[in-house]
Amino acid sequence: MSLHRINDNTLLDDEEYEDHVDGNWALGLFIIGAIAAGILTFNNLGILGADNAPKWLKFTIIVIASAVSGYLLSKLRNVVRLLLFLCVSASIIGFIAYFIWMQL
Questions:
Q1: What is the pLDDT of residue 48?
Q2: Are strands 10-12 and 4-7 parallel, antiparallel or unpaired?
Q3: What is each CA distance from 90 to 68, 77, 80, 84, 103, in whole angstroms?
Q4: pTM for this one?
């Protein structure tokens, strides 16, 4: 069993550290999802037919869409981590294959 230092006064064992990292991923993905959904919803309010809606209704639509999107993305954090890993791996393999191809 190893201990991981996360700040000056906190040491975590392996299981606690994995929970800490998982929570950081969830928070980061929630923020990214909420910001992206908020921007997309704001820019596409005309498609929803809310161009002439009151300001409070537009605000409510944007906040609800942001919260739902952030929540769903944070719940899918393991899938996002897997897809990110696969994209990075495919990029590295593609770069190596390209380098070899150019040398032939």
A1: 78
A2: antiparallel
A3: 31, 20, 15, 10, 20
A4: 0.78
Phi, psi of 94 (to 5 degrees): -65, -40
pLDDT at 46: 82
Give the start-to-end residue ranges of the domains of the chain.
4-74
Reading phi first (left if > 0) and then psi (alpha if -120 to 50, else beta), residue 49 is in: left
Q: Give the tens place of pLDDT for each residue, 74-87.
A: 999 999 999 999 99
- Pairwise CA distance, residues 47 & 38, whole Å: 15
